[in-house]
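Deviations from the work plan: none for this task. Representative record:
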Amino acid sequence: MTEWMLYGATGYTGRLVAEAAVKRGHRPLLAGRSADKLRPLAERLGLEWVAVSLDDADGLRRAVAQVGLVYHAAGPFLHTAQPMVHACLAEGAHYLDITGEIPVYQMVFGLDSAARERGVALLSGVGFDVVPSDGLIRYVADRLPGADRLEVVVDALGTGDGAARVSAGTTKSMLELIAAQGNVVRRDGRLVRIPFGAAPRRFRFPHGERLAMPAPWGDVEMAYHSTGIPNITAYLAFPPTLVGLFALTGPVVGLMLKPAGVRRLLGQAVDRLVAGPSEAVRDRGRSWICARASRADGRRAEAWLETIEAYQFTAAIGVRAVERVLDSSLRGALTPSQAFGADFALEVEGTRRYDALPG
Ligand SMILES: NC(=O)c1ccc[n+]([C@@H]2O[C@H](COP(=O)([O-])OP(=O)(O)OC[C@H]3O[C@@H](n4cnc5c(N)ncnc54)[C@H](OP(=O)(O)O)[C@@H]3O)[C@@H](O)[C@H]2O)c1
């Protein structure tokens, strides 16, 4: 029996995961909704495949029944996660996904008891968003007991050199998320909306200073489950011109994206125009994260993480997450650091943690 299924295998990220899996000796069952796209990929990699729509509940259950674990890579997950999680619970298969979408995390954590009863693990966010940041957050939180504030800053998506850093799927997922939820931070345990472009700040990294603005990165939800810290702001670093543009359009951007027709049209344009990072960009790209925990008495703990390009990282860590889950007795809905510890990201070659800034 094939041990695990990769659904969404023909997407930009799904292909990278499939290739990384084969390199590590796995033979996942490739799955997705399009036989025409799956067949050539499966033939090239010498793997079995199954085409099934997420709308076909019986067909999906039959497909999931063939495996012990599903790695879900088809997004936007706001539209795709629910049927797959339920098929996994029904068939007793572990569920892993690579979403960074906060409402999906909330849905998955809401199924914690059901997963424990069924004896399966539900693990959202086993990609770049949020394995490395969740681990780094766990690391700084452990060094400062009683911390009540957390800031995490991600510098991976845009350096302003014009090279694509995100895929079409990520762009469309961001559009859906902005329309559904807007920009959020966590205050006193609750999600609070703020406009995009509000409160940008400069942060120091080992590779220099970066301007970053609050964004609905998955840690706003995930770190709350990992650490219980009630005040969390996640920042994304962008070139200053883009931060300025967000500051101008931020208050209305969510409203502009509300009509589904607008998102559909934008999505079609994204599919035509956004190819995702090229192989050269993936090979040379670096990603940086800074996490800072603070306490009311003014003390703080800070650390940084440097790793490989975000999509390469996602493929590399995802396959390791599959191996860990299949080799464990993990049960229930868990954050990556609850499941694998603070140091999991360091297993990916080219990843390094810093306790202080050089010099
Ligand atoms: N956590 C992370 O760090 C991380 C990293 C990478 C990607 N992601 C997320 O992963 C998702 C995929 O990204 P990508 O770069 O692979 O995008 P992509 O190239 O657009 O691929 C999307 C995949 O999802 C499938 N899909 C979309 N809607 C579907 C539906 N309703 N039913 C069945 N299949 C559906 C597509 O199938 P078709 O080809 O048939 O349309 C395609 O295989 C995005 O949500 C992205 O944000 C997260």
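The CA atoms of residues 168 and 274 lie 5 Å apart.
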